[in-house]
């Protein structure tokens, strides 16, 4: 069992972690590392699965209820002897024997997480409890994909992990923001009370191929609009900022966090910060200079600024993003053009 040399509150750990399966130490049977990815049919999850499957020592089990994910994202692995796909909702208990759990299951786009807010809370709270219960039973290490939304509409800029956030507890985004905050609390309580090995990633806005075309998040919206020749819808005022991380960088950060000795929470994101108007102008310039940029109404509680301080990720994980927005957008454009069936004009 790896030593728990965590960087934050884990010095208060009271119990040793549960033992993993005896097969780990078996003399004649070299078991593969068996890894569960919840939400593995989604955008980040499917890219993570691709990377994990590259290692021949890994067996990967995906559970997903296909609310926002799709089997299509995993089609190259279906039928592979080291891969299993299970239709399962994490709000129900799950019994599988695994060594690591990447717990991603949760709708991530605001229009989807607000669609059924009670279900979003259940997914974050009951779903995380179930995965922690599983980790406890089988002695697995568990990583939670938390979010920059735990900082709410931040009063500290850029945000580092010591900031406790500015979150509306009763707003339309609370099902997600507060749900993830409780999920983080549960992770730490299982760690302190039961010795579970935990990892918490606070993910900032991530983009890349395989995002749902109608996902509703800003990068996928703008790219789909530019490819279709429709106006780019900047939600007012357009001066709000976000920092966008390309998905391959994100997956690299998640794996480093899982494999390392630090519990987190650790921000994983790209500190390059843009207003939504700047993003629209960049997409227009790179993808379709003929499209209009229009201002549309915003939704309540939209955070006004967001940028990760990634000092901790650099120091503790040796990680920093490599792909700049201007290089990542065209990679995503290719994927969207293929799926939308719209070729480039010469
Ligand atoms: N993409 C981002 O910018 C971002 C930012 C911060 C945090 N995150 C977190 O990363 C994770 C993945 O995000 P994503 O962008 O890939 O989103 P996504 O919506 O593409 O993927 C989420 C996956 O979880 C599945 N799912 C949802 N509820 C489930 C349930 N109850 N049981 C089983 N499966 C369920 C969905 O069907 C989908 O496949 C989420 O936990 C999200 O909160 C993402
Ligand atoms: O068409 C659009 C969509 C969105 N926007 C704006 O773009 C910004 C980003 O919005 P998105 O919906 O992409 O995402 P948000 O930053 O609000 O939430 C995101 O951040 C953290 C993650 O946990 C969430 O999963 C993710 O969706 C917002 O200011 C929004 O008002 C537009 O200007 N136009």
From TrEMBL:
Lyase listed as a keyword: yes
One GO BP annotation of this record: D-xylose metabolic process
Cellular component, GO annotation: cytoplasm
MF terms in GO: NAD+ binding; UDP-glucuronate decarboxylase activity
Extent of Low complexity compositional bias: 1-14
Signal sequence region: none
Tagged with keyword Cytoplasm: yes
Chain's role: Catalyzes the NAD-dependent decarboxylation of UDP-glucuronic acid to UDP-xylose. Necessary for the biosynthesis of the core tetrasaccharide in glycosaminoglycan biosynthesis.
Start and end residues of each stretch annotated as Disordered: 1-23
Main location: cytoplasm
Enzyme Commission number: 4.1.1.35
Cofactor(s) needed: NAD(+)
Domain NAD(P)-binding residues, every copy: 36-330
Record's protein name: UDP-glucuronate decarboxylase
Catalytic activity annotation: UDP-alpha-D-glucuronate + H(+) = UDP-alpha-D-xylose + CO2
